[in-house]
Design a protein that fits this description.
Protein name: Toll-like receptor 20, tandem duplicate 2 isoform X2
CATH topology of the largest domain: Rossmann fold
Strand content: 5-15%
CATH class of the largest domain: Alpha Beta
Structural class: alpha/beta
Number of strands: 8
């Protein structure tokens, strides 16, 4: 049985299915003549336009999978190259920026909710100087009062099982101030360098008197010059020297305790 019909097609992608249907349909045999499928023209509105329908459908309505794959691959490659270059040249700033933003958010939240600091000072020191911290610092600061001071020590107050950088960041921003005990051991410690770096980031953001330097020993200028961050702090901020004369110790502790206990109610 043969069925004859006259085709009048609009130049529209809505009719593009006809090309694939005629070509791929196995259940119905379609024979087009006068014009044939390849000679069929399409029209806009009520007027015929000299456009070949098959060519129009192929150029305007076909889905070029190869081109899409090429475009996606090119975009992915460009993104990959940009990420690699950013990591190489500015990757070192991503992690500090994250901790700065995280600390700033916590400080803003603490101020909004009017929360008290957990500690009066986070003590940044080398583990090799811990004997001085235990024998000198704690008795003369935490056991003196009122008001009594609460110090944060990494050996005593860090949360077990937490990432050490997270512990440092949490402790710095949970403390009213950061107390850096500078010695040769301190200068040789990568962890101490990180603690000072995060503390100075906080100082730069908050612009408050939150960083105190105490030199446990005399550090030659040639050693400080290689620690640019600390060298700049020494030039712009006052600091304390641990006196070698025992008769000067009481005055040292009086001065440090007064500094740490000031504004304790805030």
């Amino acid at each position: 049985m043969a069925t004859f019909m006259q085709l009048g097609l609009y130049c529209s992608c809505d009719n593009a299915w006809l090309v694939s249907w005629i070509r791929d349909n196995r259940k119905v045999e379609v024979d087009m003549s006068n014009p044939s499928m390849h000679d069929l023209q399409c029209f806009f509105g009520n007027e015929f336009d000299q456009l070949n329908f098959v060519s129009y459908a192929k150029e305007n309505c076909s889905f070029d999978l190869d081109f899409v794959f090429f475009a996606c691959s090119s975009v992915f490659l460009c993104i990959f190259i940009v990420v690699v270059l950013m990591y190489k040249f500015v990757g070192q700033y991503f992690k500090p920026f994250y901790h700065i933003a995280n600390g700033w958010f916590r400080e803003a939240l603490r101020m909004k909710e009017k929360q008290q600091y957990r500690y009066d000072a986070f003590v940044s020191y080398s583990g090799k100087d811990e004997h001085w911290v235990i024998e000198e610092l704690l008795p003369n600061l935490e056991q003196r009062g009122p008001p009594f001071l609460r110090l944060c020590l990494h050996s005593r107050d860090f949360q077990l099982g937490h990432d050490i950088v997270e512990n440092i960041t949490d402790s710095i921003y949970a403390s009213r101030r950061t107390l850096c005990l500078v010695s040769r051991n301190y200068l040789n410690s990568n962890w101490c360098s990180l603690e000072m770096q995060l503390a100075t980031y906080r100082l730069q953001v908050e612009h408050r008197d939150i960083l105190i330097l105490v030199f446990l020993e005399n550090i030659p200028s040639r050693l400080l010059s290689s620690h640019h961050r600390l060298a700049r702090l020494v030039k712009t901020r006052t600091y304390l020297d641990w006196p070698q004369e025992p008769e000067m110790h009481d005055a040292f502790w009086d001065r440090l305790w007064c500094k740490l206990s000031s504004n304790k109610a805030n």
